[in-house]
Design brief:
mainly alpha; 308 residues; flat; 15 helices; membrane; transmembrane helix; MetI-like fold; ABC_transporter_permease; 68% helix
Length: 308
């Protein structure tokens, strides 16, 4: 009698999941100091600032809690109100014109023009300068004594007037000109990188179908560049909230308090007026503004990927 052959069971597959936690251990160990630095210094410093914003700290921090008194004084101060209004004006126009000019320059660069590298370097060069240098340069350019106004009047237009830094109603627009000159080149490069990632077949198909170029940009290319636009918006918005150097270099907050911004308010109260509690309250409000920007961006950027 023959014994039927039995099929041997396949060997059990070894689980490799525990080993995944031990991969790249050198890189993980090397990142520990950076993580501790971020947690202790940045997170700890942020919590420390928020905590002391509820105190009556003057020259030195002290645990003398006064509740929301610092925030009530902050929002009752005309200087803070003016700084918020100025930041809103500067921020709205900076976002609009930075994106518009940057995208238009990138679209022109994407046409494979001659001397593209030269033009790209020229547009990006101002971003390599510090905001203090940019502010001083544009202070000279906009000075009515020897700037644009003086040059045009010397050509015969004696009634021409262009002195935005000396007009309380226009001073923030003078600062905006300097900011656009410096930051538009970076926006152009980000947009150009996004345009270069668009498949060339899309342009060929649109030409065959007779679709105008502006419709292709508006309804096809720009929606495909959504991640680039979101990242650019976050970069521009974070720069708007902390704007300080340009204002100090061009106007020092003047004329009067016409060009005050929140960052300058914080600096003046913490280091000149020696009112740490008020400075901490103002900086906490700036932190809240940054969080309002970062949290939606993180949700759009990472939440969508997780759902996908």
């Amino acid at each position: 009698m023959t014994v039927p052959a039995t099929t041997a069971a396949p060997p059990a597959r070894k689980s490799t999941r525990p080993n995944q936690y031990f991969r790249n251990m050198s890189a993980k160990i090397a990142s520990i100091p950076m993580i501790l630095t971020a947690v202790v210094i940045f997170a700890g410093g942020t919590l420390w600032t928020v905590l002391y914003s509820f105190t009556n700290s003057r020259l030195l921090p002290r645990m003398s809690f006064v509740g929301l008194d610092q925030y009530e004084r902050l929002w009752a101060a005309p200087r803070w109100t003016v700084s918020i209004i100025n930041l809103g004006i500067y921020g709205i126009f900076s976002l609009i014109f930075s994106l518009l000019i940057g995208f238009l320059l990138a679209a022109l660069m994407d046409q494979k023009i001659r001397f593209e590298n030269t033009f790209r370097t020229i547009f990006l060069y101002p971003f390599a300068l510090s905001f203090i240098v940019t502010g001083l340069v544009w202070q000279w350019i906009l000075n009515p004594e020897f700037g644009i106004q003086s040059v045009i009047r010397s050509l015969g237009w004696t009634s021409f007037r262009f002195d935005p830094l000396y007009d309380p109603a226009l001073v923030m627009y003078g600062i905006l000109i300097a900011a656009l000159w410096q930051g538009t080149g970076l926006v152009m490069c980000l947009m150009l990188a996004g345009l270069r990632g668009i498949d060339g077949e899309i342009w060929k198909a649109s030409r065959i179908d007779g679709i105008p170029a502006w419709k292709t940009y508006l309804f096809i290319v720009i929606p495909m560049m959504r991640p680039v636009f979101i990242t650019t918006l976050v970069i521009i918005a974070s720069g708007i909230v902390k704007v300080y150097d340009l204002v100090v270099a061009q106007t020092s907050g003047g004329p009067g308090i016409a060009s005050e911004v929140p960052a300058k308010y914080v600096y003046d109260y913490m280091f000149q007026a020696q009112n740490l509690g008020q400075g901490f309250a103002a900086s906490t409000m700036m932190l809240l503004a940054v969080a309002i920007i970062i949290i939606p961006w993180a949700y759009l950027e990472f939440g969508g990927r997780k759902r996908g």
